[in-house]
């Protein structure tokens, strides 16, 4: 089966204090995107699509695009590498962005920007997250049987494994019933308190550590692009479309489609642990985890 890995890499990463997507955090300077590509290709994915800003093309090719092009699936298939640009050229002609808008329009818009490149089942990930080997195997298996329309999949993670002591994080808090997602709420300020309590700082609500959250590890078919376009255009026509900071978010779109009965989302589980870099202080822990994975043989001594 042909399947694409879509990597969202156009974000600014303001809370991290630098471009975390291109931070060489592995033992030989590997970036987190390289681990995602490596794991996805050995799971069976044979196309990698980078969503970037236009001025990132040369950097992305040098950092990991060429590596991706040299990978082969387990049955010997070469990997196709494509680049999608998240910029103003992908906005509809009838829309004029407000003066001062420099921030990307969010993850729903990012995925929509790949419409002309992706014609097969695909997985969407963040560029700055480590999802684990098993997550890609699980998703590839799900994409083999996913219905062509009205269905999607996501890999869920336990909230306690996705928070940081260095500040608040944004997570898609999920409600799951009988293996399917029933609701998802993008929660923007989740804090890990010194006593181990996890709390939504916006509402004061205490969240259970075993709450399932989305880390933007989604599986879709190409039919989702029509829904993405409708949702994004409605966003642009709303008050949010005139904001210099508002974002059109993929989890929020999925939640709306669930509420309308237009989408069914299977919630998959991975045996691996997620980790990532929201803040620069997270970097040392991530580097230590990656060293362990190399030392235990999950990855070769040098990934490249």
SSE series? EHEHEHEEHEEEEEEHHEEH
Distance between the termini: 25 Å
Model regions low in confidence, pLDDT < 50 over at least 5 residues: none
Outline type: globular
- Taking all residues together, what is the mean pLDDT? 91
Q: Determine the strand fraction and express it as a percent band.
A: 25-35%
Helical content band: 25-40%
How many individual β-strands? 13
Q: Structural class from helices and strands?
A: alpha/beta
The Rg value, from CA coordinates, equals: 18 Å
Q: Describe the largest sheet.
A: 11 strands, mixed
Number of contiguous helices? 7
Protein described:
With 304 residues, the protein is of the alpha/beta class. It has seven helices and 13 strands. The strands form two sheets. Strands 1, 2, 3, 4, 6, 7, 8, 9, 10, 11 and 12 form an eleven-stranded mixed beta sheet that branches. Strand 8 and strand 9 (198-200) form a beta hairpin. The radius of gyration is 18 Å and the shape is globular. It starts with a strand and ends in a 9-residue tail after the last helix. The model has no long low-confidence stretch (mean pLDDT 91).
């Amino acid at each position: 089966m042909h399947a694409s890995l879509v990597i969202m890499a156009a974000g600014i990463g303001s809370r991290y204090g630098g471009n975390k997507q291109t931070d060489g955090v592995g033992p030989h300077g590997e970036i987190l995107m390289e681990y995602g590509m490596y794991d996805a290709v050995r799971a069976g994915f044979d196309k990698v699509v980078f969503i970037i800003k236009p001025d990132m093309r040369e950097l992305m090719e040098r950092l990991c695009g060429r590596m991706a092009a040299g990978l082969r699936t387990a049955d010997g298939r070469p990997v196709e590498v494509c680049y999608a640009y998240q910029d103003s050229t992908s906005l509809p002609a009838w829309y004029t962005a407000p003066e001062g808008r420099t921030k990307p329009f969010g993850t729903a818009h990012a995925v929509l920007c790949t419409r002309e490149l992706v014609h097969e089942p695909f997985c969407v990930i963040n560029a700055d997250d480590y999802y684990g080997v098993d997550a890609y195997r699980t998703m590839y298996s799900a994409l083999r049987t996913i219905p062509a329309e009205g269905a999607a999949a996501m890999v869920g993670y336990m909230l306690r494994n996705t928070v940081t002591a260095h500040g608040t994080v944004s997570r898609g808090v999920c409600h799951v019933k009988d293996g399917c997602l029933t609701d998802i709420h993008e929660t923007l300020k989740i804090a890990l308190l010194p006593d181990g309590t996890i709390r939504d700082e916006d509402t004061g609500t205490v969240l259970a550590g075993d709450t399932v959250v989305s880390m933007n590890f989604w599986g879709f078919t190409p039919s989702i692009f029509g829904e993405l376009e409708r949702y994004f255009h409605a966003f642009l026509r709303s008050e949010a479309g005139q904001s210099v900071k508002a974002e059109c978010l993929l989890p929020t779109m999925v939640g709306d489609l669930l509420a309308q009965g237009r989408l069914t989302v299977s919630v998959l589980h991975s045996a691996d642990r997620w980790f990532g870099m929201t803040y620069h202080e997270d970097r040392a822990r991530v580097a230590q985890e990656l060293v362990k994975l190399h030392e235990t043989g999950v990855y070769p001594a040098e990934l490249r």
